[in-house]
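Thread: Newbie trying to understand structure tokens

Hi all, I'm a second-year student working on a class project, and my supervisor (Dr. K.) asked me to get a predicted structure for one chain before our next meeting. I've only ever worked with sequences, so writing a 3D structure as a token string is new to me. If someone could post the tokens and maybe explain what I'm looking at, I'd be very grateful. Here's the chain:
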Amino acid sequence: MTRHRYFNTNTLWVDLEALDALLRERDGVLGLPMIVNRKTVDPGDSSSTDVVQLESAMGAAIGVFDGARALRVSRRRFAPVKTTNDLLALRSDAYVLTDDARVVTARNGPPLIDLDNRFYKLIAEFDRRFPAGAPSLVECERLEVVGDVTFGRDVVVRGSVRVESVEHVGDGEVLEG
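---
Reply by user tm_fold:
Sure, no problem. This is what the structure looks like when written as tokens:
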């Protein structure tokens, strides 16, 4: 911890001697499960060429090492951005940058965000629907957006809110649920 103070859940620390011994024992194969992701070359164009991305879940590697351990880091201290749901929370005031350059939640954890994948999955589509930036989510527990909704400037979301059947949330609106 003193040498590598900052790392995330995508980080694996492996004893190289243990890895070497295991690879020798298994003829160079760890035997991790294969993940097959079917995609298109251009994720924004469903008619582009189909491709297959092959991956292995490195988290599964802990199962092949005797005595391996996993460490759970609270979402208060860890802000993964895997989807535009995560990106919206991170761009909002639900997270703050501390004086020592850490990104942490402004309260006990980030809000749960569920944006309609038909309209918010890709960054360009996402940005088009939040042209003035993210709404205030510091007091939000959950935000669900169903349909093609554009958000205005200085929107505030409090509590648990479901937005649907509207095309635009106007500047300065407060959504409470």
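A couple of things are worth pointing out once you decode it. The helical segments are 16-25, 84-91, 117-120, 123-129. The chain has four helices and ten strands. Feel free to ask follow-ups in this thread.
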